[in-house]
């Protein structure tokens, strides 16, 4: 049994050793494939170009990217706008580094905070404000583009 096991191991190890030698051959074949790609002519359906153009136009009109925010207030009462503004000022006094957005989606006024790319980032803020805003919850939303960090040399 031990001899059979050693025989199988030696057969498989020889196969791995032979695989290492063919690496150089694949490298030269790759440069040949690249030369063939230069002369490649692809014909495609014109509807594909139309769809691609539509997709680009739609994304250019969009004011942000998909992300997450934490909703801390929503109401459809008659004084909902004043309440939303009051909650915004209260929130900014406690958390001045967070962005606050008031949205009106008929018939509700909503106060959403933060611009997070991932749900995990929104979850951190949610855990911080959960005690002050127990009705808060995480919602997917179109967020503002993140600011790029400036280089210190500029």
Q: So, CATH architecture of the domain at 65-143?
A: 2-Layer Sandwich
Q: Based on Cα principal axes, name the global outline.
A: flat
User: Can you tell me the CATH topology of the domain at 65-143?
Assistant: Alpha-Beta Plaits
Strand arrangement, largest sheet?
2-3-1-4
H/E series: HHHEHEEHE
Could you tell me the mean pLDDT?
82
What is the H level of CATH, i.e. the homologous superfamily of the domain at 65-143?
Sporulation related repeat
| Oligomer designation | single chain
Instruction: Return Rg in Å.
Output: 29 Å
N-to-C span: 72 Å
Number of helices: 5
Poorly predicted sequence stretches spanning 5 or more consecutive residues: none
Strand content: 15-25%
What attributes characterize this protein structure?
Alpha-Beta Plaits; four-stranded antiparallel sheet; alpha+beta; 5 helices; 154 residues; flat; single chain
Account of the 3D structure:
It is a single chain. This protein has 154 residues and is an alpha+beta fold. The protein has a domain at 65-143: Sporulation related repeat (Alpha-Beta Plaits, 2-Layer Sandwich). The protein is built from five helices and four strands; from the N terminus they run H-H-H-E-H-E-E-H-E. The chain has a four-stranded antiparallel β-sheet. A hairpin with a 2-residue loop joins strand 2 and strand 3 (108-116). The radius of gyration is 29 Å and the shape is flat. It starts with a helix and ends in an 11-residue tail after the last strand. The relative contact order is 0.13. The mean pLDDT is 82.
């Amino acid at each position: 049994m031990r001899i059979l096991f050693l025989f199988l191991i030696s057969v498989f190890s020889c196969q791995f050793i032979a695989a290492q030698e063919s690496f150089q051959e694949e490298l030269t074949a790759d440069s040949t494939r690249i030369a063939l790609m230069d002369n490649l002519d692809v014909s495609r359906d014109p509807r594909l170009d139309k769809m691609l153009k539509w997709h680009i136009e739609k994304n250019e009109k969009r004011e942000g990217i998909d992300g997450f925010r934490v909703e801390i207030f929503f109401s459809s009462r008659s004084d909902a706008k004043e309440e939303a503004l009051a909650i915004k000022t209260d929130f900014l006094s406690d958390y001045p580094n967070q962005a606050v957005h008031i949205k009106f989606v008929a018939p509700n006024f909503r106060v959403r905070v933060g611009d997070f790319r991932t749900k995990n980032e929104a979850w951190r803020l949610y855990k911080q404000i959960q005690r002050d805003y127990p009705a808060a919850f995480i919602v997917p939303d179109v967020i503002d583009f993140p600011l790029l960090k400036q280089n210190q040399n500029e």
